[in-house]
Design brief:
With 495 residues, this protein is α/β, with parallel strands linked by helices. It is 23% helix and 28% strand.
């Protein structure tokens, strides 16, 4: 998503002809150093006895694309329509990257032309109301198709997230606020209950339709102004607390929602503007007694700030599980290359190893924009579909680190090689070790694996030439390409 405080730096773009058509490729690169052909060795030390968090899911959002792309029934291949091909790339654990969670955008109704400052039709969204508590469940048909298809692929961790309350409930009748010098919410307190009722009514309907909604997120990045361009609502810290109290109380009245989790606070960053919100949460007994998980977005946050946040939790003796529920690289210009794929992989690595997050969710899965956002780009006129290296780079994690896998100690002695490792049971009930290596260097790296005995290893390489290319090797043969993301899979126990 695009926030008002963003500084966008245009990148140099070059038109190149590819096999799938003419696309613009970001070619701004770090200058490659001269090399004398000597291959460095990175020592990776693994310790499966030292364990950390257990993963719940890797996912992405259906906002701003599924309500259009979900209706692309034109033929992509002999077997698949265009929408089916995109779903396969995202959700299929064999042919695609096997995402294990999906975020459905529960819209405010800005498609009704009540929000003129949202000019882009992709950033508008329907709601299900015909009137107060009168619903038309046929609405948002294309986005619901993509949601149902994600479930058909086996995804059972579905989030309903809200950017703005229903326009019927907002102060100005639009899906964004009017605040200028004085920030103020677009939702009046007397409408908190009606907002909660709507969100839970939709949730209960989806559950009856066998959509496994596991989480509801009523607030999104409350610290930003959200005065146009897309659906969004500002809340100050006290308003966040008060609205969440209403959602907690209403949920407890609905036995059908006993297993449903509320997601909060969905702040845009781990530091800076989020601090006063965290303070307001920990000062409220209702929220601290109810929530054992905090979901936050990783925008605008350095690794030092992430470490400081973890230290702050420890100092305050706050025992909560953390999830990273939205991130994309905030830079103008399309990029299909390993440059942005490596940035994505390093962000995942840092959130897993610094914050110990149990879930990591990307922002929009599909983009039509001139921006480093989608895992897949589409060109709207031709409906051309262009997978990026980001897609396959995320697949190096999501396809292999499955729900229930536990992170184990993995240390690299090479600052150019990041590593993260997980242990878990696969579908054959075999214990397998999954290790993701990120080579940020412009040189190949020999990998010396220490601490764990390996037999045959299957490697999956994403680099400039390969998309999760599979190869069987031994630990003695392990060399990873320059500028690459490599996943190693090895069965450790056969029960």
């Amino acid at each position: 998503m695009i926030k008002k405080r963003t500084l966008l730096i245009p990148l140099v773009l070059l038109s190149i002809l590819t096999a799938c058509g003419t696309v613009e490729e970001n070619t701004q690169k770090e200058k490659e150093p001269e090399t004398d052909e000597v291959i460095d060795t990175a020592m990776i030390t693994l310790n499966t006895a030292e364990t950390y968090q257990t993963i719940e899911s890797f996912g992405a959002s259906g906002a701003w694309w599924s309500q259009d792309v979900g209706g692309w029934i034109e033929e992509e291949t002999a077997e698949l329509s265009k929408r089916e091909y995109i779903a396969e790339l995202l959700f299929d654990p064999l042919e695609g990257i096997g995402l294990t969670s999906y975020r459905y955008n529960l819209g405010a109704g800005s498609t009704l032309q009540n929000s003129p400052r949202i000019e882009d039709p992709w950033r508008r969204a329907e709601n299900f109301e015909e009137g107060p508590e009168v619903y038309d469940w046929s609405k948002d048909e294309n986005a619901r198709w993509m949601l149902k298809t994600a479930v058909d692929y086996g995804i059972d961790d579905i989030y309903l997230f809200v950017n703005s309350p229903l326009t019927r409930l907002t102060k100005n009748g639009s899906a964004y606020g009017d605040q200028l010098e004085e920030k103020r919410s677009n939702l009046a307190p007397e409408n908190y209950q009606a907002f909660a009722n709507y969100v839970y009514d939709v949730t209960e309907h989806f559950l009856k339709e066998d959509i496994p909604v596991t989480h509801v997120s009523p607030i999104n990045e409350p610290q930003w102004d959200w005065t146009g361009g897309q659906e969004g609502t500002y809340y100050d810290p006290a308003e966040v607390v008060a609205l969440l109290e209403v959602f907690i109380e209403e949920k407890q009245k609905r036995p059908e929602l006993k297993q449903l989790a509320l997601s909060m606070p969905e702040l845009g960053e781990w530091a800076n503007t989020s601090k006063e919100y965290f303070e307001a949460i920990i000062e409220n007994d209702t929220l601290m007694n109810y929530f054992d998980t905090w979901e936050v977005h990783s925008y605008w946050t350095t690794n030092v700030e992430k470490m400081n946040f973890k230290e702050w939790l420890e100092e305050k003796e706050i025992d909560v599980t953390l999830k990273m529920s939205e991130w994309t690289e905030m830079i103008n210009g399309r990029d299909y290359t390993m440059d942005s794929a490596l940035n994505l992989a390093n962000e995942i690595h840092d959130d897993l190893t610094i914050l110990d997050v149990v879930a990591w969710q990307y922002w929009i899965a599909v983009s039509s924009y001139d921006y480093r956002d989608g895992l897949i780009y589409v060109n709207l006129g031709s409906k051309e579909i262009i997978p990026t290296k980001r897609l396959w780079g995320m697949g190096n994690f999501s396809k292999f680190i499955r729900p229930g896998y536990t992170r184990v100690s993995a240390i690299s002695d090479d600052k150019e090689v990041n590593v993260v490792s997980f242990l878990g049971k696969n579908e054959a009930n075999e214990e397998e070790l999954i290790t993701v290596l990120i080579n940020n260097s412009f040189q190949e790296k020999e990998i010396d694996l220490q601490g764990v005995g390996f037999g045959e290893i299957i490697s999956y390489t994403t680099d400039g030439e390969s998309d999760l290319e599979e190869q069987s090797i031994t630990s003695q043969e392990l060399t990873i390409p320059r500028q690459s993301i490599v996943t190693l899979k090895s069965v450790t126990t056969n029960e």
